[in-house]
Inverse folding.
């Protein structure tokens, strides 16, 4: 390979299609993942994220389009692709009858690591993933979080340069999630390329260099987290009132506000600075309107998600309310 | 290493995995070992005296029937073990780890080879226990060491064919239940052949079927090797059956495995 590593794409996909029967799941996907970066694929349930990972990791044949993974044509040299990648799927891929250590040993043997190298690697991974004593217990008794860690540890035995992680932190508690993020950051620091799907927008925000939002089989928007945030309308102040009268009076006072009768809330555009906030409160005070609760909402990836995946506005508002409480 | 060497190492790795599974799930092996032994005791002590009297030449008794029964029962043990193979193959296919194997640069058949080798070992275990019990209750083979070796070879060939067939049956089953039901016909076949009674006591249609189905020549070959009865063409017919069934089942299993991959 004479191409310089800095610009070589780890994955390049053009015109990827896939249908199951009549159902079109992926409808012309183009994307490029640069080596050594984290690429995050977001999308609602059923958007086709797992299907995409399964295609790119040679599990399912594509319905059309051309795909290169780790420098190899996916259709022509699947084995070369397999030798270069590591996959931790959405659903647990550990052998439940084997212990954690035996699972790791199985991977070491299948990667043809020698006895000594294999042992050293397993010891390292047991330590790094904090498997400890449990490494000697069958995987069937592991908790969800521990199973997830073992799953990723097994993927790392072969030291792949390109790793697919399909919802790696779903079902993990906050501590485990942060631990997983640390591990992913460590991999990136070593120059590993990561293709990550997730339901958690803060996860993509934390980890990803580039994000693509998948919806109805197409990539609806793609860019860096900041680019994406800058492409949607600014933030707002969310005001909640005790009764409809107060709500409607306030709506007259604050002309630009968006009203939600069911939730008794007003959404006032604002970029979150103190002056505009004070102005809004002053006007409500002048009109002697009681505000029940107030929350400030700065644009985040949730907004990007809802803005681009065609979810109705009411759902977006409902989420913004809970979002403010997080 | 060459790719053939990798295929062999990967198969050995998968075989070790299968050994662990057998070890962690002993109740299945226990059932597979128990079934033929129970049948042996049942047929010898309950039906033995009567069935012995009906053997060709007449005037046989329980001890004559033990000798008649054991070769067929050895095959019955192999088909019982085949059922276990189908079950464990189908169970394995529901495990997420199979998907992991598929994303790795390993020989794909090695997963299947691991199952086959593990099952052959299980089959051998079942047969050894059965033979031990049979010898203890009066089985008196006349075989020379060479004949024993040949008998072991025939059993291995039959076990190999049955195991590949049941791996394929396990792979095409949508559920573990289906996988435990489909190989049921394999367990019936020794009965519908010369395994338990001579075929010439059967009604014409059944007798025709019994004479031409693969279990019969294999049983006759074993009987000949272990007890000195006539073998005739049975040996060749048996080996031909085993080779054909093994090859077709191997191809079928590989195809079924690939198919499941694309789902
Ligand atoms: N083997 C299959 N046969 C038929 N339909 C399938 C198959 N696999 C996936 N689908 C369909 O393809 C669509 C996309 O599924 P996929 O699992 O890729 O979604 P996802 O984005 O990963 O969703 P989630 O966030 O829930 O994991 C779904 O509508 C699903 O029902
Ligand atoms: Mg998914």
């Amino acid at each position: 390979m004479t191409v310089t590593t800095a610009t070589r794409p780890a994955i390049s996909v053009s015109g990827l299609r896939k249908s199951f029967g009549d159902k079109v799941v992926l409808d012309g996907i183009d994307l490029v993942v640069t080596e050594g970066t984290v690429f995050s694929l977001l999308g609602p349930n059923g958007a086709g994220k797992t299907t995409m990972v399964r295609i790119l990791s040679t599990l399912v044949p594509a319905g059309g389009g051309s795909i290169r993974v780790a420098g190899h044509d996916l259709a022509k040299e699947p084995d070369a692709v397999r030798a270069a990648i590591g996959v931790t799927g959405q659903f647990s891929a550990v052998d439940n009858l084997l212990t954690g250590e035996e699972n790791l040993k199985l991977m070491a043997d299948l990667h043809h690591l020698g006895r000594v190298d294999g042992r050293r690697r397993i010891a390292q991974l047991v330590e790094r993933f904090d498997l400890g004593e449990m490494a000697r217990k069958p995987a069937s008794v592991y908790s969800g979080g521990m199973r997830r860690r073992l799953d990723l540890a097994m993927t790392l035995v072969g030291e792949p340069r390109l790793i697919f992680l399909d919802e790696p932190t779903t079902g993990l508690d906050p501590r485990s999630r942060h631990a997983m993020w640390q591990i992913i950051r460590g991999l990136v620091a070593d120059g590993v390329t990561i293709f990550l799907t997730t339901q958690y927008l803060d996860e993509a925000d934390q980890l990803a260099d580039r994000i693509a939002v998948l919806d109805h089989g197409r990539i609806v928007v793609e860019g860096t987290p900041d680019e994406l945030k800058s492409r949607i309308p600014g933030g707002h102040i969310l005001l909640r009132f005790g009764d409809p009268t107060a709500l409607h009076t306030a709506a007259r006072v604050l002309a630009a506000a968006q009203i939600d009768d069911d939730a008794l809330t007003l959404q006032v555009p604002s970029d979150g600075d103190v002056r505009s906030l004070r102005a809004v409160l002053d006007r409500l005070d002048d009109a002697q309107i009681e505000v029940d609760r107030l929350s400030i909402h700065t644009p985040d990836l949730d907004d990007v998600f809802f803005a681009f995946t065609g979810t109705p506005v009411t759902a977006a508002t409902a989420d913004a309310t809970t979002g403010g409480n997080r | 290493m060459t790719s053939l060497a990798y295929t062999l190492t990967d198969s050995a790795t998968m075989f070790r995995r299968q050994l662990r599974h057998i070890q962690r799930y002993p109740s299945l092996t226990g059932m597979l070992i128990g079934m033929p032994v129970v049948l042996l005791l049942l047929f010898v002590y309950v039906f033995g005296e009567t069935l012995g009297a009906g053997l060709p030449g007449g005037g046989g008794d329980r001890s004559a029937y033990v000798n008649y029964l054991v070769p067929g029962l050895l095959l019955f043990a192999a088909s019982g073990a085949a059922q276990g193979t189908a079950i464990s193959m189908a169970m394995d296919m529901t495990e997420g780890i199979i998907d992991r194997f598929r994303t790795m640069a390993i020989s794909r058949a090695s997963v299947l080879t691991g199952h086959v080798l593990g099952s052959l070992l299980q089959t051998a275990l079942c047969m050894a226990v059965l033979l031990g019990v049979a010898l203890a209750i009066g089985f008196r083979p006349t075989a020379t060491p060479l004949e024993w070796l040949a008998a072991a070879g025939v059993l291995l060939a039959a076990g190999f064919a049955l195991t590949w067939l049941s791996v394929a049956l396990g792979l095409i089953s949508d559920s573990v239940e289906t996988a435990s039901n489909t190989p049921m016909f394999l367990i019936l076949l020794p009965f519908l052949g010369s395994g338990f009674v001579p075929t010439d006591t059967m009604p014409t249609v059944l007798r025709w079927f019994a004479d031409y189905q693969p279990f019969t020549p294999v049983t006759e070959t074993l009987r000949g090797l272990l007890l000195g009865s006539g073998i005739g063409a049975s040996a060749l017919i048996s080996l031909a059956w085993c080779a054909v069934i093994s090859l077709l089942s191997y191809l079928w299993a590989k195809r079924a495995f690939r198919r499941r991959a694309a789902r």
In short: The CA atoms of residues 195 and 259 of chain B lie 37 Å apart. The mean pLDDT of chain B is 90.
